[in-house]
Amino acid sequence: MRLFQAADVGSAPRAVSSSSFVYDRAEETGAGTRVEYRASGAAPCPGTVRGVAQVFIQPSYGTPEARRYGAETLERTVAIGEHADLLDPADLARLNAVHPGGHARFWGAKDKYDRRMDTVTTGDVVLLTGGKRVRATAEVGHGFRNPAFARRLWRPGPGKCLWSNVYSLRRYRSVELPYEAIWALPGFTEGDNFMGLRFLDEPKSAAVIELLGSQGRGGMPGRPPHPNPGLP
């Protein structure tokens, strides 16, 4: 992994090495500082601002409808350009930038989570759960609010609640991680079945990211990276 030392916006970042687990993420803030997101470990390089990537847990396999949704947009990728007519130009541009191959996996959340989903950003980590285990892990590519796009992707049945929040995924990995592995981390409670969409605080997020980093290359356990780097 590579870190990027803080620099003025628009200038080329200087790569520095680190032995700690770090996500490939260098965001530019309005203050003109590159912000690096990491789990924990070595002290930050001089002139850098650091934070922990947010982790959230989402039940995603518990109902026939959720499994149908997953078959459409988790088990396979979606061609972004085929839905450009429903996407805001800014969202379309961001999706194409984050997923240069033109394809991405997508998932979503109901409108009751609007305020929390507004905090989700590129590089945050989601654990998709079902059957008392983590079934998949991924990083968020781009999150946005678009009920029409969600309706086209998932085609909810009559009377079913429509997702309004949508987020793309990158570094998606199918895994079989039992809840016991999460319960053993600091701050978690044995027997917690993670019902509903759950956003973790910074210490718990850091602990989960460290666990994922110990499970496999790139911080995500499971399958090796896709042989075609243009696809997620």
Features:
ph1033 like fold; seven-stranded mixed β-sheet; disordered C terminus; disordered N terminus; 6 helices; 2 domains; single chain; alpha+beta; globular; 232 residues
What is the highest CATH level, the class of the largest domain?
Alpha Beta
**Low confidence ranges:** 1-50, 217-231
* Most strands sheet: 7 strands, mixed
Number of helices: 6
* Overall body shape: globular
Q: What's the arrangement of strands in the largest beta sheet?
A: 7-8-11-10-9-6-12
Quote the average pLDDT: 77
Strand content: 25-35%
Name the helicity range: 10-25%
Kindly report how far apart the N and C termini lie.
18 Å
- Strand tally, please? 12
| CATH architecture verdict of the largest domain | Roll
Compute the CA-based radius of gyration.
18 Å
Please provide a written account of the structure:
- With 232 residues, this protein is α+β, with helices and mostly antiparallel strands.
- The chain has two domains: 3-51, no CATH class; 55-219, Roll (ph1033 like fold), CATH 3.10.590.
- 22% of the residues lie in helices and 30% in strands.
- The protein is built from six helices and twelve strands.
- It has helices at 64-73, 89-98, 114-117, 147-154, 179-183, 202-215; strands at residues 3-5, 14-16, 22-28, 34-38, 49-51, 55-59, 78-79, 103-109, 125-129, 133-145, 165-178, 198-199.
- The strands form three sheets. It has a seven-stranded mixed beta sheet, with helices on both faces. Strands 3-4-5 form a three-stranded mixed beta sheet, with no helix packed on it. It has a two-stranded antiparallel sheet with strand order 1-2.
- A hairpin with a 5-residue loop joins β3 and β4 (34-38).
- The longest helix has 14 residues, at 202-215.
- The chain is globular.
- It starts with a strand and ends in a 17-residue tail after the last helix.
